[in-house]
Amino acid sequence: MDFERVLKLLLDECASHAVRYGVIGGFALGALGAARATMDVDLLVHQEDLAKLDEALAGAGYARFHHTENFSQYRHPDAGWGRIDILRAFRPISLAMIGRAKEMPIFRGAMSIRVLEPEDVIGLKVQALANDPRRFNEEIADIEALMRVYGSRLDFKRLEEYFGLFNFRPLLASLRERTSC
Fold this sequence. Notes:
Strand content: 15-25%
Distance between the termini: 35 Å
CATH topology of the largest domain: Beta Polymerase, domain 2
Shape: globular
Strand order of the largest sheet: 1-2-5-4-3
Helix content: 40-55%
Number of domains: 2
Number of strands: 7
Largest sheet: 5 strands, mixed
Order of helices and strands: HEHEHEEEHEEHHHH
CATH architecture of the largest domain: 2-Layer Sandwich
Radius of gyration: 16 Å
Low-confidence stretches: none
CATH class of the largest domain: Alpha Beta
Structural class: alpha+beta
């Protein structure tokens, strides 16, 4: 996947259609200083803007191959354009995440992209862990990486809320101990 080409397309489409979004997943981890390999682009998108983005992606050759109330996946027939995963923001908690997203430089400052705050990326990782416990090791590794990078700068009150939503407060305490936060 040619991330620079795909992200330029996404940024241009989001800007021209006023799509409210924030990058999540592996690309967000990298932008936040906790790099890990990724093979797709993951976005949290305001529900009211999904139709505009869906139309723009279809116009660029992407086909939606998976769609639920909360999540859509797109792929392009040209592997260089890769896959895009979109999580819908429609609850107050996810809409607040988009509202807090910050512009961050990528590709040595060649462009910038809206990235969720580290606490919010962690919150979505906790949700992913609750939705699919088979992803435990991957999600915990990503959470620990962000905790190591941000340490005491993290808003632990917000993290306690996220972990508490899924009855994972003891897990947060364990992670804090392991990462010295």
